[in-house]
Specification:
The complex is a heterodimer of chains A (320) and B (240). Helices cover 75% and strands 1% of the residues of chain A. Chain A is mainly alpha-helical and 320 residues long. Chain A has a domain of 207 residues. A two-stranded antiparallel ribbon of chain A has the order 1-2. In chain B, the strands form two sheets. A six-stranded mixed β-sheet of chain B has the order 6-7-8-3-9-10, sandwiched between helices. A four-stranded antiparallel β-sheet of chain B has the order 2-1-4-5, with helices on one face. In chain B, a hairpin with a 2-residue loop joins strand 1 and strand 2. The chains are: A mainly alpha (320), B alpha/beta (240). The interface between A and B is medium-sized, with 23 and 35 residues.
Chain lengths: 320, 240
């Protein structure tokens, strides 16, 4: 009877989820510090990937400027926790709030653009922040800030923070896509003019999605810089964040919830291996991405879904 | 019959190009109004104005006694104006069922739970109930047209604007489109139907409006319009 229920999928997915969660929660107790730190990076990159995928894969908003919110999140943590001595978690939360406020004010201008113009526009915003922070005395110009408050955490603490952030990011995306807004996002991505004639308010839908992903990116930025413990404008607002996230999501499968998870695992593990080739690591990464795109244009999960119909974390509505 | 839509002196210009000069017509409850006219007459532009995609430079649109000329596209949809596009625009990466469900949830403003039954009912009516799980991008042209009509019906329209729903289809497929329009009418929906396949359209319309050079030329019962001097002049270019 139990087997029958599992095969039907009644309890299969929740059980799988519980097992994975149990393994993740207990990871520090049965594995070494290196594995824990790798898993922490995977969780943080996965969270970033989920947010970028929400924008590009589900809402059709291809952003090249998500690093703006990583930087705001990182700097909020640095300034509030180190300069003002605020609680670290409050500082991280403030990073999310500041990211959300910033996103709200730039959205009217950004949403006047679409497609590649939106991508470039969002990138310009992030580059402007980089310049501004590099010339701002309050954040010590381009010298950066040593986030001394982060020293109180060890690898295990940081892992648990990353676990909370990673699970929260995946959950936020899943719940949003399963809600009424999920239908609007996907309809808007596939054909915005048709979506509008069905009563979907494009601006509100875009804004909701942008604000959620900006807020979460700010939080992820804070968590990431808690691990890095030193922040520089050139690194915090670097296009490198978006390049990494784009690599992960495209390799894993854009427009699928599993894509950023698979992509993050591959990206982090591959990066660990590539440390042996410092001069050509980016070249190897780029060639690998091109090869995977040629073999599986829809990414690993997208191709798997097209061939076998497999979807583990599906936002799809089924009949009945 | 109760008047549902009143278009009064509608005009639009793009720069110096006056595309619609003066369009007037009325649509009654549960009526199918066919719109004919040569290419460039302004038929699709008129539909785009009625949907809110284009803003008129002059004139008013009154829907159920309310001036909706300045309403946005989603507002018009929620008030009861649905439309299909000349080239179908399905949500390709969503399933057929999700396409209809989106129309129900946003257009009719009902919960997703309530929308499920309605979506299945519509899929049955548009004869796509066996393709619910298929991605809309994989549908053929006739099924895409069916999906367009179904998706518009899902919004609970009082008026449905059909833009060349029979375009690009074979003769037998056009007959199916005619059945589709009859089904829409049987739901109590009024229809403005732009079509180039006039023979088929005449079978399903109560009145016909002829547009040419951005003006309404003649409007009346199908046979009278088709036999009119104006139609002969515009389509053939001379009085025969």
């Amino acid at each position: 009877m139990k087997l029958k229920l599992l095969s039907k999928g009644t309890y299969g997915k929740p059980l799988c989820f519980l097992v994975i969660m149990a393994l993740l929660v207990t990871l520090p107790y049965w594995s070494g510090e290196y594995v824990v730190s790798i898993m922490m990076l995977i969780l943080l990159y996965m969270a970033m990937g989920q947010m970028w995928n929400l924008m590009a894969g589900y809402a059709g908003l291809l952003s090249l400027g998500m690093q703006a919110f990583i930087g705001i999140g990182g700097y909020s943590l640095a300034v509030f926790s180190t300069t003002y001595g605020l609680n670290i978690f409050v500082s991280i939360l403030l990073g999310g709030i500041f990211s959300l406020i910033f996103a709200f004010f730039i959205s009217p201008a950004l949403f006047k653009m679409s497609g590649v113009y939106f991508a470039i526009g969002s990138w310009v915003v992030a580059e402007s922040l980089l310049l501004w922070f590099s010339n701002w005395e309050f954040v010590r110009y381009a010298q950066g800030i040593n986030i001394t408050s982060a020293y109180q955490f060890d690898t295990v603490d940081l892992y648990y923070i990353a676990l909370v952030v990673g699970v929260a990011a995946a959950l936020v995306v899943y719940l949003l896509l399963r809600s009424k807004s999920g239908l609007a996002l996907m309809a808007m991505r596939d054909n915005s003019s048709a979506a509008e004639t069905l009563g979907i308010e494009l601006y509100k839908t875009k804004l909701r999605c942008y604000l959620i992903s900006s807020f979460m990116m700010g939080i992820i930025g804070g968590a990431m810089y808690l691990y890095q413990a030193y922040i520089l404008p050139s690194a915090a607002f670097s296009i490198g964040w978006t390049v990494a996230v784009t690599f992960m999501v495209i390799i894993g499968g854009i427009g699928t919830m599993e894509g950023p998870i698979i992509g993050a695992v591959l990206y982090v593990l591959f990066n660990q291996y590539l440390y042996q080739f410092p001069g050509i690591s980016m070249m190897i990464l780029g060639v690998t991405a091109i090869l995977i795109i040629l073999v599986a244009p829809n990414g690993i999960m997208g191709t798997l879904h097209n061939k076998t119909g497999i979807e583990i974390l599906s936002a799809r509505r089924n009949v009945g | 019959m109760k008047e549902i839509l009143n278009v009064d002196q509608l005009a639009i210009s793009f720069g110096n190009n006056e595309v619609l000069k003066c369009i007037n017509f009325k649509l009654h409850e549960n009526e199918v109004l066919g719109v004919i006219g040569p290419n460039g007459a302004g038929k699709t532009v008129m539909l785009n104005i009625l949907t809110g995609i284009l803003k008129p430079t002059k004139g008013t649109i009154t829907f159920l006694g309310e001036d909706i000329t300045k309403d946005t596209i989603p507002e018009r949809c929620r008030k009861g104006i649905g439309r299909t596009f000349q080239v179908p625009r399905p949500f390709e990466k969503m399933t057929v069922y999700e396409n209809i469900l989106t129309g129900c949830v946003y257009g009719s403003r009902i919960s997703e739970k309530e929308a499920r039954h309605k979506a299945l009912d519509i899929l049955e009516k548009i004869k796509l109930s066996d393709r619910t799980k298929d991605f809309a991008g994989k549908l053929g042209l006739l099924d895409r047209k069916r999906l367009e009509v179904g998706r518009a019906l899902a919004t609970d329209p009082k008026v449905l604007l059909l833009d060349e729903v029979g375009g690009g289809l074979t003769e037998s497929e056009v007959e199916e489109v005619l059945d589709l329009v009859r089904m829409v009418k049987s739901q109590g929906v009024s229809v403005v139907w732009i079509e180039h396949i006039i023979k088929t359209m005449l079978e399903g319309t109560d009145r016909v409006l002829l547009l040419a050079n951005g003006c309404d030329i003649v409007c009346g019962c199908p046979q009278d319009v088709m036999n009119s001097k104006e139609v002969t002049d515009i389509y053939i270019g001379c009085e025969c």
